[in-house]
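Collaborator request, handled under Task 6.
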Amino acid sequence: MIITVVTAGMSTPSSTHLLGERLAKATADRLEASDQAVEVRTVEVRELASDLVNFLGTRVPSERLREAFDAVAQASGVIAVTPIWNASYSGLFKLFFDALEEGSLKGRPALLAATGGSARHSLAIDSALLPLFFYLKATVAPTAVFAATEDWGSDESGLDRRIERAGREFADLVAATPAPEASDEFAVVDFEQLLRG
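Structure tokens returned to the collaborator:
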């Protein structure tokens, strides 16, 4: 079973990356407890920024970008984590999901998470991420996780409990979801072929 973590943090170290790692560990722990073998793959969108921009102009993915797309397409479940800027996901995060092949997330379990400077940004998960993943036809896990700056290093914030709960629910969703079948619902016909009739 493959769990792919897509993170769009811009700094090193990154709280966005750390949240993705912790959610992946909680998910893997739950799956491994029921004797499921788990491989966790991580896609750092920051490292693919120039590849994504080139892809927009050429529609030809670099080898690194193709590997990232494959990591999502082959995943049993995807954990998507973004920093919140201006009340929404980062532009780089959106660019990655815009570049995915149509139908890549159809029927695939997705766990949504975000980081931000304060708790007032937490509604961005419902107002921005949720509509995006519904549009992409992902099966969204019931519990999302938002981590504000003040949540890190504070036992009282409940971040550990929220991560464990989200990981447990996501693992159960992944285990109960059959592998998505290949679909030609959004098959693209070559323009030259259309012109020939």
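The cover message to the collaborator said: "The first strand starts at residue 2 and ends at 7. The chain is about 45% helix and 20% strand. Please let us know whether this matches your experimental observations."
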